[in-house]
């Protein structure tokens, strides 16, 4: 081996080193460095492919994890979920007179119209998805289906009943002691129901406080709220509306028609 002849390795046969710099620098090198360029570009391409694969992997994992987290609409089925949208809306305080105050025709009509969708018709398939088909009350008419109540209308009904309890002489004249006791029980139920509903929805938006020039007390500076768009929900409920007190609409399998002569409970009990 000592007498072996050695030859100079051509430039293009020399091993390549990973040179610093970007692709533009590599492309500017002499032709003799083509193999080095190819090696460097191949290394960069491999690194790029690995980076892309890593990003894709991370995205897939994140989407999978988020997919496992239930959203509000996933926790419990509702046929209204598909029409629900959200909007940012301020709470309007200068319309209090339309909903509050002593009894008057305008206020009573507003509450009446708001609660028209209190009882609604749902289909057999919708009840199956709720897991309530075996317990539901069937509607005894040509359209069929079952009677249901959208929870927000229960909340509104409770607020209406609480308001009525503020004016018992107007809304409940000549009540007996037993009737008064029952209304008080219903009122307390409604107070607790509204409490639970507020905690259930738990609006986590923030409002701040501000100073007024001529007042030493801070005043609340209310922020808008993220709300479900009411119009679509109200329209859906009114389209499905049923009158539970229609004669013969509700028929108990053992006791027969619940309201054979129509009528039924007062507005504060039925919420309509």
Automatic annotation (TrEMBL):
Transmembrane portions of the chain: 47-68
Q: Name one GO biological process term.
A: mycotoxin biosynthetic process
Residue segments, region Disordered: 1-22
Q: Where is the composition biased (Basic and acidic residues)?
A: 10-20
Q: Which domain of life is it from?
A: Eukaryota
Write down the InterPro entries for this protein, in alphabetical order.
UstYa-like (IPR021765)
Ordered alphabetically, the record's keywords are: Membrane, Transmembrane, Transmembrane helix
| Family named by the database record | Belongs to the ustYa family.
For this entry, the protein name equals: Tat pathway signal sequence
Q: What is the lineage of its organism?
A: Eukaryota, Fungi, Dikarya, Ascomycota, Pezizomycotina
